[in-house]
Amino acid sequence: MLVLRNHPASPYARKIRIAADLLGLSDRIEIATANASDPADSLRRQNPLGKIPTLILEDGSSLYDSRVIAEYLDHLAGGGRIFPTDPSARFLALRLQALGDGINDAALLIRYETFNRPEPLRYDDAIVLQQGKIDRALDALEAAPPAGSVDIGHIAFACALGYLDLRFAGAWREKHPRLVAWVEKFARAVPAFEATKA
After folding, report:
1. How does pLDDT run across 4-15, given as a tens digit for each residue?
2. Can you tell me the distance from the alpha carbon of 165 to that of 110, in angstroms, rounded to the nearest whole number?
3. Which domains does the chain have, with CATH numbers?
4. Selection from 40-49, 109-118, 119-128 with the highest mean pLDDT
5. Burial class (CB in 10 A: 0-12, 13-18, 19+), 166
């Protein structure tokens, strides 16, 4: 059995759990919570970066980074399921995945700066820089919401919106009504989105 080292609040691990469900692989994956902050957690032996998600394969080796894991799961499911094979569709999906993951990267840096760092040591310019990345990505997608069948890009972007809801009280929603409608439609089409909510 495969083992997914996971944390319920991780948008990257959520992306993998949703992908696994869509690919019909959930019953082949054991979900095991990891604590990336704990030096004693075996995660650091399974992934030298000590990051979530990490997928432990049946031979004991590991795959890491949600992009690599998602592509591996698509391969296990026969290929071309959530990673389109048509080049134009594939690169649109990969670009949307990069935007979703980039929103998460920026949001996590803001979270670390505001939650983990003592207030006198916070660097406001870093927060402004990361928030700008999030705002520009959301504005671009508000102008042209994702279309077509659910693919890895849709999954990554939905998880980014979910993370913004979780950690930033859904502040993005007020200025992005088309994206609100989009994520609600995604949630109806992909039950795993709600099922994996932290």
Report:
1. 999 999 999 999
2. 14
3. 2-76 (3.40.30.10), 87-190 (1.20.1050.10)
4. 40-49
5. middle
